[in-house]
Amino acid sequence: RNTQRLMIRQAASSLLIYIICCCRYYYSSSLLPRGALAFTTSSPLRTKNYHFPPSESSSVLDGSSSDTNTMTTDSTTTGITIPHLSPTTLANLVDYTISFSAANGLQVQQKSERSATSTSSSYITAPISLLPQAYPHGQFQHGLALSTPFNLLVDRISRNGKFLQETLKGVRDVDEFTGMLLTLYEAIYLSDGHSSEQHAKGADRLGILRSDYMLHCSQAANNEYSIKQVELNTIASSFAGLASSVAKLHGFLTRRLGEEGLQEFLDVNERAVMGDSSDGIVDGDGERGVPQSLAMIRLPAAMAVAYDRYCARFNIGSSSNNDNNNGEHKSDAAVIKPVILFVVQPNETNTVDQRLLEFALWDNHEIPVVRMSLGEIHERVTLDEASGRLTIQNDDQGDNCGAVQEVAVVYFRAGYAPTDYPSGYNTADGSGIEWLARERLERGSAAKCPNLGYHLAGTKKVQQELARRGAVEQFFEGDEADVAAQIRTAFAGLYSLGADANEEDMEAVKDVLFNDAKGQYVLKPQREGGGYNYYGENLANKLKENCTITVDDDGNNDVTLSPDLSEFILMERLFPPQQRAILLRNGQVEGTGMSISELGCFGAIVSSGDGEVVHNEYAGFLLRTKFSGVDEGGVASGFATLSSPYLC
């Protein structure tokens, strides 16, 4: 009887626990926004502001995917069969991943409606590939080695006003956003007039750049894969923080479960990418596998260089000297330690990635960060025309009540898309407040990341122009000719659709229109963040709608491009190797299938107003993975997932 009573009690307890769990699941599911990460990618994969930025698009993580509770792992692998991976190993992978993500901040903030009385936030596991993707060690190292040359190229372009004006003159007439950036650049950096422009010209320039590459195989390359540049992001180059965490996760998973049924899956992917030609190299730990990203060390270090140079220049407290000194910058108001100003979007959801950088700045350098939108900056940040000081005016509440915070560095995680300027372009009547805020920041003495020159250097039209013969070479002459040659190895085919289109450009257009080659190209506008490109039939239709086609007496087709196409470039489409991936969204396995990946290599550069480069280095990596049937590729825009390379 006692045994029977015990069994009855245990059964009742189990039933009660089951009922409570069901109620909790139903209750939490009814409160949480459903499916915070729709998967469907500035590029074939795009991150501004998965910006997994350069950019961090406002369409990122918008709550439109699966309808499962993000913290539930019981049913994440139910009914899913993964070749070369047992159900037990898959369940262990998901369990470890969810736990690791929660413990290490590998998460994104859910978009939710906030009230004036509620500031609570909820977080979910970031969209990630459950396992790393096989990647050739030699091409990975090539991408890393290109970081510092591309850093130099962007810096030199930013100082060549004639090159930017000539390159973008056709774009400015049809793209109001790029036109506004160029107009501000001309007014501030190319004018000889007002003294306030001198503050911007003398300010340091900080670049946190990310060059994105896809592996591509061409017949000319003897059917071997090599990296080709998709785009170069110069503003809001994002996901350095989360990508570093993904690399740590994948390093843990491959070491922890490698001998428990995981290695066969990795080996199959390696053969899919490398065939029988594995490089046979080891990573820095003496093993083949996932490398460590240095992004959360090197990016904060570069920002600290710019910060300390500002403080030294104006004789105020730096990251190595917490005491504010007396000097020409001293204000009558109470002054606290200078800050780095993060310019962010209102209701930003990629906050964790940004906060990881903020926390590293404090932990490693004791540099404080203030986050503000362009609208808030317009209200609270002032520019002293005489000294170039940018200061934040605090209200009479909080820890810094009544104090003035001086801005040493401006770091843009917003401002890369027209949607970041909702008040419009009219600054003359004071209504375009976001543009007025952008201009005010630019005119100050603080280091900008990026300044307008760096921003413009990252446009698609500049990327296309650089691919022309002799374009890169004008920035690396004499003894630096080998640097230009190194950069050129990464260029894919890029073609103009503007008034400067030459015979080679028109042949690419005709290839699409008359030779059914629409699948061999991508049509790109001057936008960041993913979701703007044209592929396949949509590309062909876009060209047909904006071209006039005539036939000459010999029966040859003649094509005249509409000026409206000037804001676009045509790019050779890249075809990276396919391998199996398991994609995780909202803490659950979204599915498995063949995938392609895009490597992003971060670079950090600091240069003075007169062009002296004081800091220039490679600064970490990310890998984004999407199913091979998806054209676009941004993480933040909901098309791709964060992953990491498994070097082989």
Short note summarizing the structure:
With 648 residues, the protein is α+β, with helices and mostly antiparallel strands.
Report what the structure shows.
This protein has 648 residues and is of the alpha+beta class. It is 36% helix and 21% strand. The strands form 6 sheets. Strands 3, 5, 6, 18, 19, 20 and 21 form a 7-stranded antiparallel sheet that branches. The N and C termini lie far apart (64 Å).
The rounded distance between the terminal residues' Cα atoms is 64 Å
Percent of residues in helices comes to 25-40%
Tally of individual helices = 17
Mean pLDDT: 84
Uncertain runs are 16-75, 322-327, 330-334, 632-637
Judging from the principal axes of the Cα atoms, what is the shape?
globular
Structural class: alpha+beta
What is Rg?
Answer: 26 Å
Share of residues in strands = 15-25%
Task: Say how many strands there are.
Answer: 22
- Main beta-sheet strand count, sense and barrel state: 7 strands, antiparallel
